[in-house]
Design a protein that fits this description.
- The protein is of the alpha+beta class.
- The protein folds into 4 domains: 105 residues, Reverse transcriptase/Diguanylate cyclase domain (Alpha-Beta Plaits, 2-Layer Sandwich), CATH 3.30.70.270; 56 residues, 3-Layer(aba) Sandwich (MutS, DNA mismatch repair protein, domain I); 55 residues, 5' to 3' exonuclease, C-terminal subdomain (DNA polymerase, domain 1, Orthogonal Bundle); 120 residues, DNA polymerase, Y-family, little finger domain (Dna Ligase, domain 1), CATH 3.30.1490.100.
- It is built from 15 helices and 14 strands.
- Strands 5-6-1-7-8 form a 5-stranded mixed β-sheet. Strands 9-14-11-12 form a 4-stranded antiparallel β-sheet.
- Strand 2 and strand 3 form a beta hairpin.
- Helix 11 crosses helix 12.
- The longest helix has 17 residues.
- The radius of gyration is 22 Å and the shape is globular.
């Protein structure tokens, strides 16, 4: 089935650029110390403190190293790996430089993280209105002025632009025109669809569906029966349809902190003890978030003081703010638990979540994280990293 009946003229005429810095943290370090460009490099926590890889350069990737890999494992794969601790102050400064360049092309910029953003250049008239020429120009400007390589994707919507930016990495540019959408998406693996993780992909594979072309053969009613509201999304995306606008007023959807322990925590009581310090860190981040205007006004009554009494007040109702806890066991399996509590978001509530989470496997714990998920968010938008 063609997508012409689903894509309105206004949506089809959008010009969206998705920019993604190549191995951003590592790229900044290599820029500041060119000798690092000649060796396998990873940015992240130390192996001694059971840290993980935040990002790595392409030389390191040749050894099978990737982000979120335990640093100890990365060093076993590549004993000569150079490991550097992250410098987020520096990375934020570089990100701001890049964002300022984006704004010379359009005011419609939606940052997704420090190293990527959507730009809507539909109304930009420079470069003869060509989004392709604009993408080429901004990539060159960022390279010459900031010293960072950016890959870019150009397409009529956000979903396709994001896929396109990854198509020719590193240092790539890929363009999908309105006329190319149908043929391009038809051959696309369903694993590339926004919101499709390993579990959903397996469910689709069990239905005999591995490509978007095959997914188009499944009726909308069957998709919604099997996947709920995600079924409608699958029906649209496999046809290249994405009506989301580039949002300049994006607000954070979750806030969290986490820590990896040098020694595993052996029981529930041991897991509860570090929560006080984590809760203090979460409260400090929330206070900074409020001062920067990134939290919804409904949730700006965070009361910071004694950690036993501090709470983030929920807004009530089924869509209220929720608190969550993440626990990684010594076998690297992860469990998460979240809940909306009408009484507010307190340390005691996290302690309860922690005890419940530990009971799920009752084995040593190597990592704990806690956070809040803000109310009334659009689940179709790209998510910030749950644990940054």
């Amino acid at each position: 089935m063609k997508n012409s009946t689903l894509v309105g003229d206004a949506t089809a005429q959008r010009k969206i650029i998705h920019c993604d810095c190549d191995c951003f943290y590592a790229a900044v370090e290599m820029r500041d110390d060119p000798s690092l460009a000649q060796v396998p490099l990873a940015v992240g926590g130390s192996a001694e403190r059971r840290g993980v890889v935040a990002t790595c350069n392409y030389q390191a990737r040749e050894f099978g190293i990737h982000s979120a890999m335990p640093m100890g494992q990365a060093l076993r794969l590549c004993p000569s790996l150079v490991v550097m601790p992250p410098d987020f102050t520096k990375y934020r400064s570089v990100s701001e430089q890049i964002r300022n360049i984006f704004h010379t092309f359009t005011d419609k910029v939606e940052p997704l993280s420090l190293d990527e953003a959507f730009l809507d250049v539909s109304e930009t008239t420079t470069y003869s209105g060509s989004a392709t020429l604009m993408a080429q120009a901004l990539r060159q400007q960022i390279k010459s002025e900031v010293g960072i390589i950016v890959s870019a994707g150009v397409a009529p919507n956000k979903f396709l632009a994001k896929i396109a930016s990854d198509w020719n990495k590193p240092d790539g540019l890929f363009v999908i025109t309105p006329e190319q959408i149908d043929g391009f998406v038809e051959q696309l693996s369903v694993g590339k669809l926004f919101g499709v993780g390993k579990v959903t992909e397996k469910k689709l594979n069990d239905l005999g569906v591995s490509t978007c072309g095959e997914l188009r053969e499944v009726a909308l009613t069957e998709l919604t029966e099997r996947f709920g509201v995600m079924g409608q999304r699958l029906y649209e995306l496999c046809r290249g349809v994405d009506v989301r606008e580039v949002r300049t007023d994006r607000r954070r959807k979750s806030l969290s902190v986490e820590t990896t322990f040098v020694t595993d925590l052996l029981d529930a009581n041991a897991c509860v003890r570090p929560l006080g310090e984590l809760f203090e860190k979460l409260s400090e981040r929330y206070a900074k978030l409020n001062s920067a205007g990134q939290a919804d006004s409904k949730h700006r009554d965070f009361k910071h003081g004694d950690s036993k009494q501090a709470a983030i007040k929920g807004s009530g109702g089924a869509s209220g703010t929720r608190q969550f806890l993440k626990m990684r066991f010594d076998d690297f399996t992860v469990t998460t638990i979240e809940r909306r509590l009408d009484s507010g978001w307190s340390l005691e509530a996290y302690q309860q979540l922690c005890e419940e989470a530990w009971q799920r496997k009752s084995r040593p714990v190597r990592l704990l994280g806690i956070g809040v998920r803000f109310a009334n968010v659009d689940i179709d938008d790209s998510q910030y990293s749950l644990f940054e």
